[in-house]
Each structure stands twice: as structure tokens, then as C-alpha cells.
Amino acid sequence: MSDITINPKDFQLHEGDTGSADYQIAILTVRILQLTEHMNANKKDVSSRRGLLRLVSRRRKLLDYLKANSEERYQKALKGLGLRR
Asked: Could you tell me the domains of the chain?
């Protein structure tokens, strides 16, 4: 796997939180990293590429939502997940 380890539980707002944008972004990021690794090994896998693009788009929308509603949580998510923007 990649050298970055992400624990989605670090992004929960409270115990049992599964719906906050922060947590969803963390979950999507983990899945995106896994699919990216898969795509490096299987370059012709078009269905996985499409799924990867959908996940990236969904994460982008959640990040936009977070930025509009809470700049502080947005910056924490970017820094904690190692995303650049």
C-alpha cells in the first residue's frame, strides 16, 4: 500500500459518527488510494477507472461543501489526509 496511513476514525466528530463530511472524505480517500494502486497494476481496467473518477468527484463535492460551511474543518481535512488544493 502507499506510505500514507489514514485512520478514518480520526475524522469522526463524535463516537459513532458515520455521516459527517469529514468522515466521508476520509473513507473516500482510503478507497481512492486503494483503487489508484489497483489502476497502476491494471492499466486497462476501464470499469475501475470509471469508479475511481466517480469517487474522486464525490470527494471533491464533499470538500467543496466542507469549505463553504466550515473553513477550519476543511483545512484540518486537507492537512490530515495529505490532500493538496
From this structure: 17-81 (1.10.287.10)
